[in-house]
């Protein structure tokens, strides 16, 4: 797969100014925050908790409108499935079901590795809040970095339809060759069409990376071996979670 370059990895990331409005996250077009780009909707926790325990939503991790803290939200989508389907079919046509399945399984693992690597580069380069990070493989497995990656469809972000907003912001299909099905599953889009990179805020364009900002939450969607991309959100630093509900 690697020596013959039978599969390719493509990904896209983007960062935008953002603030909390109630349970939602407002995403702005630029640093002036005078024009809204979109609104992200995140559900508040629904499980039973002990008295006094707040029901947290991802919006709690973004500073509210009108605050002096300039928070940001980012998104990403990655895939290592470009070419995997065709490679798998070649084995299938030769009645080699084992290797046909292995191609998909390995592409799935490579997508997870790509997401891990992208997260690392976000922390160290593109967002740049952990430029001096030095973690062993064991540290990475135990997620000892600053930030986590819950995902659309997981408890912290159970609403899959928010992927449509994410893909629109990232221009994920034209930029990385990944598309959404009508049920919001992710699949690489044949054929891949090169496109422009997503909008990044002016700090990114000016310096190549954002000024150090505390990142606390980053989301990454795990998908079945038949899908092979990953996508999700990066959320900026949490304020103290509200406990009024």
What secondary-structure arrangement, pairings included, does this model have?
Layout: E1 8-21, E2 24-28, E3 36-41, E4 71-82, H1 84-93, H2 97-126, H3 137-141, H4 162-170, H5 172-176, E5 178-180, E6 186-188, H6 202-207, E7 215-218, E8 229-236
Antiparallel strand pairs: 1-2, 1-4, 2-3, 4-8, 5-6, 7-8
Helix amount, in percent?
A: 25-40%
Can you tell me the number of structural domains?
1
What overall form do the CA principal axes indicate?
globular
pLDDT averaged over residues: 77
What string, H for helix and E for strand, traces the elements in order?
A: EEEEHHHHHEEHEE
Cα separation of the termini: 51 Å
Structural class: alpha+beta
Number of strands: 8
CATH architecture label name: Roll
User: Under the CATH scheme, which class?
Assistant: Alpha Beta
Strand order of the largest sheet: 3-2-1-4-8-7
Q: Using the CA coordinates, give the radius of gyration.
A: 19 Å
* CATH T-level fold name: Cobalamin-dependent Methionine Synthase, domain 1
Which homologous superfamily in CATH is the superfamily? Answer: Vitamin B12-dependent methionine synthase, activation domain
